Every structure is written in C-alpha cells, then in structure tokens.
C-alpha cells in the first residue's frame, strides 16, 4: 500500500482591477472583478471532492471572497498569508517605479516603508511550520508574492528565489513530497482555473490582456 504524503494546495485569488492593470496590490483591500468572481467559482469546481484538514485564507477581501466563491467560506483567516507590504510602492506599476529608480526589483530591493524578501520569508517560515505539523492536506488562499515565497521556502530556497516562480490570478499550485517528507518538491505550479478550463492544461483568457509580469514584479 502506497503511503499518502500530505500536500499543501496554493490558490491565488481572482482578478482585481489592480492586478489586471499591473499595479502592486499589497494591503489595499479591493474587491474581485466580475471575471475574478467567475474564475473563483471555476477554481472551486477544480477543488471539488478534495478533503482538507485545514483551509486558511489571507484576511484581505480578494482572498476571502475567492475562498468563499470556491466553496470554502469557513476558511480560517491567517495574517501571515497577507500579501507583501509594498510600502510607498503600493498601487504603482514596476515600469513606473523604474523611471524613478532604474533597475529596481521587488525581491532584491524590497520597498521603502514596506517589507523585504527576508521579512516576507520569515512569515512564510512560520506558516510552513504550522502546515507541516498537521501532516495532512491543507489549502491556502492568498496572493501572488507571498505564495511565490512560500514555494521557495518549501523547497529550501532563500525567499529571494521566489522571484523565479510566475503566478497568475485564480491559479492552483501544490507543494508536496517525493518519496518522503525529507524531499519537499513542487508537484503542480500555476494551473489556471477559469470557466471551461481543463485540469492540467493552461486556459486562454478572453478580454483585455493583463500587464506583463515584467511590469508587475
């Protein structure tokens, strides 16, 4: 009999007006767009039938609403899942920040009056310790950059290396193990969940094109 190894499912919240336009959205509490709500329901369909010992969500509205629409309205709020605090760069696009500060990169340089990768990494480590301790499947609803850092720290990489993981809105990823808990791996990454999408295949979204990742992180 094959032993079941626990997994941590990572769900990024649905689209907001700011995520669609490439604006850094840290602690600003803004709602999902109509498309974001539709995609959140599709995410719920993707997760249907999976049993979780623990479901957590960032306390910010866009994550809580995604969890509720996906069928997890009773998810526990966890402050360590809040998005990176972008400080003075909140609501701004990377391309605009770089006009004032050429070469600026979020993970390497952090944000004035905000967080650094190391600080976000400390939050991620606290959360991962909690998730590993339950030794059962768990699901978290959160935000792009904190989820990227969680993935890096899960695999033993520095928080800085979260920069190497691309993540779309309303996407599903999975952290797990290979052979045993001494071999943490990423089992699934950035599976987009939208109406009509097929699990395991990237779906093509209709509507206005979102800002490229180079303008967002």
UniProtKB/TrEMBL annotation:
Pfam families, sorted: His_Phos_1 (PF00300)
GO molecular function per UniProt: protein histidine phosphatase activity
Classification via SMART domains: PGAM (SM00855)
GO BP term (any one): regulation of phosphorelay signal transduction system
Residues binding substrate, per UniProt: 25-26, 62
UniProt name for this protein: Phosphoglycerate mutase
Organism: Sulfurifustis variabilis
């Amino acid at each position: 009999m094959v032993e079941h190894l626990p997994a941590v499912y990572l769900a990024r919240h649905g689209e907001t007006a700011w995520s669609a336009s490439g604006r850094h959205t840290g602690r600003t509490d803004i709602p999902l767009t109509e498309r974001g709500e539709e995609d959140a329901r599709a995410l719920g369909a993707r997760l249907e039938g999976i049993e979780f010992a623990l479901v957590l969500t960032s306390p910010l509205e866009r994550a809580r609403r995604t969890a509720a629409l996906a069928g997890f309205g009773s998810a526990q709020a966890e402050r360590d899942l809040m998005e990176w605090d972008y400080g003075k760069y909140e609501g701004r696009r990377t391309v605009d920040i770089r006009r004032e500060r050429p070469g600026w990169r979020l993970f390497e340089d952090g944000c004035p009056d905000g967080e650094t990768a190391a600080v976000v990494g400390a939050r991620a480590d606290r959360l991962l310790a909690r998730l590993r301790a339950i030794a059962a499947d768990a699901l978290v609803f959160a935000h792009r950059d904190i989820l990227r850092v969680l993935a890096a720290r899960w695999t033993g990489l520095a928080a800085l290396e979260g920069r190497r993981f691309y993540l779309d809105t309303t996407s599903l990823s999975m952290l797990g193990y290979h052979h045993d808990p001494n071999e943490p791996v990423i089992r699934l990454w950035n599976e987009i969940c939208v109406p009509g999408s097929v699990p395991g295949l990237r779906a093509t979204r209709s509507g206005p094109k979102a800002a490229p990742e180079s303008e967002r992180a």
